[in-house]
Design brief:
alpha/beta, Maf protein, six-stranded mixed β-sheet, 5 helices, about 25% strand, globular
Length: about 200
Amino acid sequence: MREIIIATGNVHKVQEIQSILAPYQIRVLPAGAVGRMPTVLEDGQTFAENAALKALAGARAWGRIVLADDSGLEVQALDGAPGVHSARYAGEDGNDAQNLAKLLQNMAGRTDRRARFVCVIALAGPQGILGRAEGEVQGHIAEEPSGCGGFGYDPVFIPEGYQQSFAALPEAVKNTLSHRARALQAALAQGLFSALPD
């Protein structure tokens, strides 16, 4: 079984990536398994830039091949916000509940509720970036949260073709159609994980 480290402190993200990659005999190790997650200033203007910053920081700190993702929600009526600021939408000290509350407040009274989740995966070794892959899923923002699964904006995001939010869908279903699943599938199709040691 091949191993890769994920450069994140987000336990939900680790669990989701572990579930998606397990069938491919890829063991995903959280950053805490190899050391402290390096502090990374996520000042990129795009998801791809931020994913690369995190992957490179981890790879250079641990001397291993590292995966990082940067992802977020882009809402049509909010000119693409929260976008790269999705995790900090309610401020640097904000949390998922505060981000969600701010989003619903900003969406109050809006009829155009189209949105998409975007994820960019970056793989890096100590010498540099090995590759990137992107995934997205279209949908819309619900009027109110529903479901008790998932994390982040999942309770208000209803993917195209479904009536339930990501948080209300079974995990197995979400893991086949989410932006993160699609980015990882693209990375697999591109052979990005072939560089991993056995």
